[in-house]
Amino acid sequence: MEQVNLTAWPRQGLGKEKSGRLRKEGFIPAVLYGPGIENTVNLKLDTREVDKALSTHSSGNMFINLSIDGDKKDITVLIKQLDRHPAKDTVVHVDLINVLKDHEIHAEVPIVLTGKSVGVVQQGGILQQEQRIINVECLPSVLPDSIEVDVTPLENGQSVHLKDLVMPEGVKFMEDPELTVVLIAVPRTVVEKTAEEAEAELAESLKDDKAEATEGEEKKD
Fold first, then answer.
1. Which CATH superfamily is domain 3-103 in?
2. Which residue ranges does the chain devote to CATH 2.40.240.10?
3. Using an 8 Å Cβ cutoff, are 84 and 51 in contact?
4. Cα angle vertex 133, ends 131, 49, to 5°?
5. Which residue, 17, 70, 97, 117, could crosslink 154 as a Cys pair with Cβ 3.0–4.6 Å?
6. Any idea where the Large ribosomal subunit protein bL25 beta domain is (predicted)?
């Protein structure tokens, strides 16, 4: 699991106007809460530091070694929620959750598909990833960067559910085990072709039955 260093400063005053002023000054409003934190702490982060950390960060979660100005001891935190501007896509607010090494955490972990499905390569199927992240619970030391799902053996019409995933030791998912993660859909053209073939076979079968019946009547005559 990746870890980066960030500096935070106590933030005085709340509200839309004060938050907007902070952003113009090059800061991002943030809050800190979680185990070991009695009351939510209002902070501000350096926009450039946050952008740099996010741009070099490759996994779904990263531990942050947070240094709060005025505090002697650094703490470890995770980004719980990241709010972005709807048009500019810039970070406008950050929720940080305190992490204790002996306290289980809830986190979102990305699902990464590997391999090339037999259904797609050989049968003309369409791969549909229904879930791209899952919520997990575990100790910080075993939090995975991602959960890999090998789709190679999947044929048309087959799927993988949450209960089918091989989870790392000490990590458990917090959602419905029947949730579909990925499936190989049968193209409509294939379905239509199959239906046409079935109709053709039925018509041929009826034709043969009629021919046999006619032949039987002729023999009686």
1. Ribosomal Protein L25; Chain P (2.40.240.10)
2. 3-103
3. no
4. 145
5. 117
6. 104-188
